[in-house]
Amino acid sequence: MEEILYRIVENNRDLAQKGKLADYIPALLKADKNHIGISLKTEEGLVYKYGDYNQGFTLQSISKVVAFILAISENGMEDVFKKVGLDSTDEPFNAFTKLDLPNVNKPANPMINSGAILTTSLIKGDGEEKFKKILELTRLMANNESITFNEEVYLSEKLTGSRNRAMAYLMESKRILSGNVEDTLDTYFKQCAIEVNTVDLANLAGFISSGLPGLEFEGISNKDMMLLVKGLLLTCGMYNYSAKYTIEVGVPSKSGVSGGIMALLPRGGGIGIYSPGLDENGNSKAGLGIIKDLSRELKLNLLYDNSI
Fold first, then answer.
1. For residue 85, is pLDDT > 60?
2. Cα 23 to the chain's mean position, in Å?
3. pLDDT band at 237 (very low <50, low <70, confident <90, very high)
4. What distance in Å separates the CA atoms of residue 113 and residue 99, rounded to the nearest whole number?
5. Is residue 6 annotated as a catalytic residue, yes or no?
6. Catalytic choice (50, 53, 188, 245)
7. Domains with residue ranges and CATH for the chain
8. Which of 41, 55, 105, 262 is the most buried (most CB within 10 A)?
9. Active-site pick, 39, 61, 88, 284
10. Which of 50, 53, 239, 274 is the catalytic position?
11. Catalytic: 61?
């Protein structure tokens, strides 16, 4: 496996320089596009690593998965989906044009920014309590108690997050989002700034694909919750590239604009990839090349028919 990871990463290394850093979050411009790392956790619990696998980076949109799981555990599936949809979208992750239409009464899904902000607002607690819950669940899922958040990235997002602030206040004006808007935004900016490495991402993925052990959900079994998360990531996890990604890669995945990709493998397996140069959709350019090659070589695509 180490040889496979080495070969695939090196074959895609040239893509890293062709990607663009997320310049709308100034702190992310400090990332080094030469950094590429990967960790792969098997169903037996073995973790294979290559490259800059221990390089820290912020979760960004991958944190939406953790917040979604927490919101379901505290509110139940029915109440969460009264507020946020379960539909894929062809819009960029930070768009909210359709949300302003008179007949639209909730964000399309929890993996775009408007839906994620709404999901975070549903987590119970005041002030820092919401964020502490998200951080503790992240630590549990990643099996790493030392995980914390990057204050520089958090403040950078908070100072430049005009679009997120605009969509939050739009949702408040339509009575979709309740509670203190600035508190919700502060929690959202901070959850996006939680810092991890590729081993943490592989463990997060493995925790979900092993059935979210130790967590409880109202009105839904852990197995069905796992299937819900996998389905959500297959249809919405890679922004407006998700449909093509499902055909080309076929692995439930979530990306973030810091350059991370988290991919869920069966029975407790998972993949974490980091390369900060992004494509036009906000996904890691080299990361996409790596996961596509891995999917083909290891036959990871859920659509793959072994009889052919």
1. yes
2. 19
3. very high
4. 11
5. no
6. 188
7. 2-60+195-298 (3.40.710.10), 63-192 (3.40.710.10)
8. 262
9. 61
10. 239
11. yes
Residue 52 · residue 35 · CB < 8 Å: yes
> pLDDT digits over 180-223, tens only?
999 999 999 999 999 999 999 999 999 999 999 999 998 899 99
Residue 299 CA, distance from chain mean position: 23
Note if 20 is an active site residue: no
Burial class (CB in 10 A: 0-12, 13-18, 19+), 2: exposed
Select the more confidently predicted residue: 143 or 240. Answer: 143
The residues near 53 (Cβ < 8 Å, ≥ 6 apart) are: 37, 38, 39, 197, 198, 199, 272, 274
Three-state secondary structure along 169-211?
Answer: HHHHHCCCCCCCHHHHHHHHHHHHCEEECHHHHHHHHHHHHCC
What is the total residue count of the chain? 308
**Burial readout 273-293 (b: 16 or more C-beta within 10 A, e: otherwise):** bbbbbbbebbbbbbbbbbbbb
What is the tens place of the pLDDT at every residue in 43-76? 999 999 999 999 999 999 999 999 999 999 999 9
Residue of 41, 49, 64, 133 marked catalytic: 64
Is 239 a residue of the active site?
A: yes
* Average pLDDT taken over every residue of the chain: 95
In this structure, how many other beta carbons lie within 10 angstroms of the beta carbon of residue 154? Answer: 21
Strand partners, 41: 47, 270
* Residue whose C-alpha is closest to residue 76's, from 215, 218, 226, 222: 218
Q: Residue for token digits 């070589």?
A: 297
CA gap 294, 292 in Å, rounded = 5
Q: Which residue has the tokens 């997060």?
A: 204
154 included as an active-site residue:
no
Q: Is the dihedral of CA 176, 182, 186, 192 positive or negative?
A: positive
